[in-house]
Amino acid sequence: MGGYLLRRAGQALIVLFLVTVIVFVLLHLLPGGAAHAILGPRATPAQIATFNHENGYDLPLPVQYLHWLGQLLRGDLGYSYHLNQSVGSLIVSRLGKTIVLNLIALIISVAIAIPIGVTQAVRRNGIFDYAATGIGFVFYSTPSFFLGLLLVLWLSVNTGLFPAEAPQSNSIWEILAQPRAMVLPVLTLVLLQVSLFTRYMRSAVMDNLILDYVRTARAKGADENRVLYRHVLRNSLIPMVTILGLSLPILLGGSLVIEQVFNFPGMGLLFYQEAQVQDYPVLLGITLIVGVATVVGSLAADIGYAILDPRVRYV
Amino acid sequence: MTAAVAVTLAACSGGHSTSTQPQSQTSGKAVNGGTVNVAEAASVTPNWIFPFSPIANFSVANISDLQQLLYRPLYWFGGHNDQPTNDPGLSVARQPTYSTDGKTVTIKIKPWKWSNGEAVNAKDVVFWLNMSKAEAAQWAGTVPGAYPDNIKSYKATSADTVQLTMDKKYSSNWLLYNEFSQITPMPMAWDVTSASAAAGSGGCLTSVSKCPAVWKFLTAQSKDQSTYATSKIWGVVDGPWKLKSYNSDGHYSIVPNTAYSGSPKPKLDQVNFLPFTTDTAEFNVLKSGNQIDLGYVPPQDLPTKPAGSDLPKNNPAGSNYDLAAAYRWSINYFPINFNNPTVGPTFKQLYVRQALEQTLDQPVDVQKALRGYGLVNFGPVPAKPVNKWMSPAAKQGTPYPFDVNKAKQLLTSHGWTETNGVMTCTKPGSGSNQCGPDVKSGAKMEFNLDYASGTPSLDQEMQQYKSDASKAGIVLNVTSKPFDSVTGESVPCTASQKICKWEMGNWGGGWIYAPDYLPTGESLFATGAGSNSGSYSDAKMDKLINTTLTSSDMNAFYAFEDYTAQQLPVIFQANVYDVFATSTKVGGVNYNPLQTLVPEYWYRTK
């Protein structure tokens, strides 16, 4: 197990390094450049040259990368010249809110998806299975922005049941104190995620139901509920570990589309806003966070899987 | 920056204003107190409080929506009307007076107080002037050769009077609109190099050489957004409002400055500013409840405008809101690169520019692409709001209305022949019926036109332009690119430079005259001007522009204006206007073309 962990951690570090290199190069290849985006059409060539010089954008790309990496190793994510703040403080101020929104949605989604998926598998090819599959398919194939806008239209503009805007506070407690304002963004995320999780759950349960150990359990006289909940469910949850691990990037990075639709000032929105003005330090900071989350999430999923299913350790 | 100026302006009328603009309609009875929520423009939030901004922070959001609410400039433009003019009633200083030779200007400060009890006086103006001398490179309002270079000397001649000596006589209008308008008195509490230092200890008031340290400290303070609302420095205000709270995500609130010396005094208890990521998010919230009192209807949510009205027949914001049309003090155009080594010589021919303008169907663009919410634009002065700068000739309309046949005739009469759908120069030379100097035989009337992506109306306009131009034998290779790419490539250059390959660059936003409010052309069309993107150069134009800077005669201004419309240093295109939504429960609001906010006029009703 130790060797496995070390091997996976080493791979994760390499992936992370490559991610930063690729993102750094791609960002700096974007047309226009930060100077024009930040200074606007009124900037003179001299002002643009000064800006580029002050921010080191006139240096060769590898030098710029090494400079950024050096800062990073000192724990400095840089300074946003668009928002006039350190990138670290920006990320800290947004991260909590994004985690809260996505964690609530994730917990609710899993709680709903598991029983639906199990029921579908047990009653496969029945009315409930077809209905759940159909509804799930509709939600899964609906673009998130469209679903969000539909919910705003129905539940906010037309009926006035919930606010169209997510809570705007910086304090997590104040956000949690406005549950009505959280309903629409959470509901949108839940509707999208439940359909995905349900499919995985249904498949996993169905796969397990035909395995030998289930037949053995039944042969030993275990009733169906015991077979289902003590044996099948536990094993079927293993694939969910992978999905949950891979949800970590969204948990930390936010959902760009949902945050836009509901004006939720989280990480996704921050990325969207700063991408428009090519605010490189912020974009790199968020990319790094999401990159780390992706690597850590997939590592955690692998480890969790290895713990739950020892066969994986020897692959 | 221009593209970012979209939509949060709200200015007002009445009181001490010079305007006659009526206040917004509201049926309820005015009450004192209450809160008004204002929607900020999508993705644009104030982030710089120090009213001595570098260009990166020289935005309408910072200046109009934050700084000027707290710190009033010497001469305040906007006001309670729809005119782009100075509002003496809301300004800190009385109108300047001039010596007989016009070189010496005397500015008298009104007996206003800072919120800490100190007088707003001549020292505060000298402090600013010293700072702008010392840190001209850091101040976005600096114009080399003009402000502050053209101020030879200045001094406080009494506690409330400042005297400035200019290097020559200038137009009093130009000085007021483009130079003195940019001066903001700064309190002695800011003349420090640390937060705990005694007011005035920084020494910038008495010695220009000490200003850099003060500037460095104040700039660092302005970068520290977490302290905006609690700062001892920024808490000293002379405007009608002070900051109550500020969040770097764009949420901030202002409350009345009870020590405000001007008039009118604020009637509201508080004004909240709300950030939005997209205009869709803003419109959702506007429609769905009462969270926004002053908002806007995004262009894509406006139904087609009926003829004879500035507003839609049905109100998309709902019955809780009144709509208002707001014209920006801006012009819309796109530059052409006169120095491009290939097509530059062609662009230098006036008849070619005329043909390019005559194949751009602005009325159709207004009606179709802008769905009626726009106006034809053909010169350096915005046609709306109706203003005193419009020349008699300009009032007659565009000199080059859409006419493809005339455009074609212009080209064929100057030695161009249509070959395979493209006009080709077949008679090179400088004669009146030839292609013109430096235009080579075989040169084609084919240009690359890059325009900013992301705006459906601009997409539509450029496709329409391509189609109409082709009918005159002009081939436009239109390509949409990110806004920053277009602004990035559309820069002044010389033919030998690599960056000079661009031919036509349309970022879609043109130019807004703020905070250089006089629509003169020294920034845009003078030879070598920083924002003369196409490197246009014409001796007569330079002379006419210079005259507008030195003569207050309106005829001099009209001469520049008419010559610009006739010469086409850029291709003018249709300009859009905004539609704002004001809660029916809020009064005293109107919308100013300079996008300045005057919430002291606003009130709630019951």
Automatic annotation (TrEMBL), chain A:
CDD domains: TM_PBP2
Keyword DNA damage: no
Keyword vocabulary terms for this entry: Cell membrane, Membrane, Transmembrane, Transmembrane helix, Transport
Transmembrane feature ranges: 12-30, 99-118, 130-157, 177-197, 237-262, 282-308
Location(s) in or outside the cell: Cell membrane
One example of a Gene Ontology biological process annotation: transmembrane transport
Protein name: ABC transporter permease
Species the sequence originates in: Microlunatus elymi
Species classification: Bacteria, Bacillati, Actinomycetota, Actinomycetes, Propionibacteriales
TrEMBL record, chain B:
Biological-process GO terms, alphabetical: peptide transport
Name under which the protein is recorded: Peptide ABC transporter substrate-binding protein
Location of the protein in the cell: Cell envelope
Gene3D superfamilies: Dipeptide-binding Protein, Domain 3, Periplasmic binding protein-like II
Keyword terms of this UniProt record: Signal, Transport
Family, similarity comment: Belongs to the bacterial solute-binding protein 5 family.
GO molecular function: peptide transmembrane transporter activity
